[in-house]
UniProtKB/TrEMBL annotation:
The keyword Metal-binding appears for this protein: no
Keyword Transit peptide on entry: no
Top-rank taxon, per record: Bacteria
Pfam family, one: FAD_binding_2
Cofactor(s) recorded in Swiss-Prot or TrEMBL: FAD
GO molecular function: oxidoreductase activity
Official protein name in the record: FAD-dependent tricarballylate dehydrogenase TcuA
InterPro entries, per database record: CobZ, FAD-dep_OxRdtase_2_FAD-bd, FAD-oxidoreductase_2, FAD/NAD-bd_sf, Succ_DH/fumarate_Rdtase_cat_sf
Keywords noted in UniProt: FAD, Flavoprotein, Oxidoreductase
Species for this entry: Aliishimia ponticola
GN (gene name): tcuA
Domain FAD-dependent oxidoreductase 2 FAD-binding span(s) in chain numbering: 14-441
Length: 469
């Protein structure tokens, strides 16, 4: 039987992990297994623990031959090619290859630490070869890791908001955090920062993006406000990434301001036309399979008037994608749909007519792979899945920019270690979204955030424990 819990501020710690999401948990578990005394400081209340990880669904994984729920194989070079395509080459290839290669050993490690995967999926996501889906989603993963961590003696403090890391030359001397109105100070041997990006601080977003950012929705936790990130950057810790780059997707415009999560994402774009509030198309909806291109649509919508877009589909496309949590707007005619969506009816009818006239032979239509069914003589074109929108009833969704996490972060090396003035900070490591900009210069690849968090969380935990020992 365990004795009474000793106050965190009255104990000595080998490692303090700041942030209780996937990356922080992987670091804590790895360090605890190496014999370290570990404390996690989690800003959120216990029911909301886990940061953005509780909204995730899957993990992108390299593998040679079938592995767990994954079929066939997904090589390092193909994985890297997919990443280079979405980032337009803006990545640190050494760190990217490290994340990709190490992902193969992570999947069995995850299973050994309580994570369960569901059988491979078919359908519009077409990810059975590349992405392993968690049984119970991200919340199932987070809860499994907390159970494992508790069994290893890791202590967790909730509603513990870190406000400052005191640097003494090139080491962290102390951590200050507040909890229940009291301020506490710790001096651990090692520190891992896994506290996410700054996306929930909409004032910071607006400084980077301009006033348009006030119209953005934040898909994940309201607790990722970048307090620790700003504190370290202000003290000269090396940074990486651009504050205007982020994982931003187009989500249902009816989603809440914060914490709507994965269910607000819309996967219907490839089978639609997307228009702005003037009922004009503005980009190729069929550019690539959705898991490789969904993350560009947040930025595309952000560039439209009022930061809003509108998806238009017809009856024959309604069952081709995973439904959103909100039902689509429905109408018997395009004009009626336009009125319901506050679009100019004549203009929407003309845009659809122009699109329909540009569609050709649709006999090769194949919803789960690039089919080359494209428009002719239309700007912008639709290069795949281009079928006329003709079959009533017609359906529509509004789109807004949903920010998942920001890419301005802490620069790390292959050991997940942070630096100041080109010197390593001897006892500071970073993992997860707070350092993901080291690899994601722009764009996003489905499931890759969890890969980065798992790989670098484990590395950070191993290095931090070795330093403490």
């Amino acid at each position: 039987m365990k004795g009474p819990k000793v106050k965190a501020s009255e104990q000595t710690w080998d490692l303090v992990v700041i942030g209780g999401g996937n990356a922080g948990l992987c670091a804590a578990i790895t360090a605890a297994e190496a014999g370290a005394r570990v404390l996690i400081l989690e800003t959120a209340p216990k029911p909301y623990r886990g940061g953005n990880s509780r909204h995730t669904r899957n993990f992108r994984c390299m593998h040679h031959g079938p592995l767990g729920p994954l079929v066939e194989s997904y090589t390092e070079e193909e994985y890297l090619s997919d990443l280079l395509k979405v980032t337009d080459g803006k990545t640190d290839e050494g760190l990217a290859r490290l994340a990709i290669r190490t992902s193969e050993e992570c999947l069995p490690w995850m299973q050994d630490h309580g994570v369960r995967f569901q059988p491979s999926l078919s359908g519009t996501l077409s990810l059975a070869r590349t992405n392993a889906f968690f049984l119970g989603g991200g919340k199932g993963l987070v809860n499994a890791y907390y159970r494992t961590a508790q069994g290893l003696g890791v202590q967790v403090e909730y509603e513990a908001a870190v406000t400052h890391l005191e640097l003494d030359d090139n080491r962290v001397a102390s951590i200050t955090y507040t909890q229940n109105g009291e301020t506490h100070r710790l001096s651990p041997t090692s520190v891992v920062v896994a506290a996410g990006g700054f996306q929930a601080d909409t004032d910071w977003l607006a400084r980077a993006w301009g006033p348009a950012a006030k119209n953005f929705l934040i898909r994940g936790t309201p607790y990722n406000r970048g307090v620790v990130l700003a504190d370290l950057l202000d003290q000269g810790i090396e940074q990486v990434g651009d504050p205007t780059q982020c994982h931003a997707v187009a989500i249902d415009g009816r989603a809440p301001k914060f914490d709507g999560g994965i269910v607000t994402r819309l996967d219907c774009v490839p089978f639609s036309i997307v228009v702005n509030n003037q009922a004009e198309r503005f980009y190729d909806e069929g550019e690539d399979v959705w898991p490789k291109r969904y993350a560009i649509w947040g930025r595309l919508v952000a560039a439209q008037p009022d930061q809003v877009g509108y998806v238009i589909i017809d009856a024959k496309s309604l069952k081709l994608f995973m439904p959103s949590v909100f039902p689509p707007i429905k109408a018997d005619t395009l004009e009626e749909l336009a009125v319901k969506m506050d679009l100019p009816p004549e203009k929407l009818r003309a845009t659809v007519a122009e699109f329909n006239a540009a569609c050709g032979d649709i006999s090769g239509f194949h919803p789960t792979e690039l089919d080359g069914v494209s428009t002719t003589g239309l700007t912008p074109p639709k290069t795949n899945w281009a079928r006329p929108i003709t079959d009533p009833p017609f359906y529509g969704y509004s789109l807004r920019t949903g920010v998942t996490f920001t890419y301005l972060g802490l620069k790390v090396d292959e050991n997940a270690q942070c630096s100041i003035g080109n010197r390593p900070v001897t006892n500071l490591w970073a993992a997860g979204e707070t350092m993901a900009g080291s690899i994601l210069g722009q764009g996003y690849l489905a499931g890759f955030g969890m890969t980065i968090g798992t790989v670098f969380g484990r590395i950070a935990g191993k290095e931090a424990a070795a330093h403490a020992n």
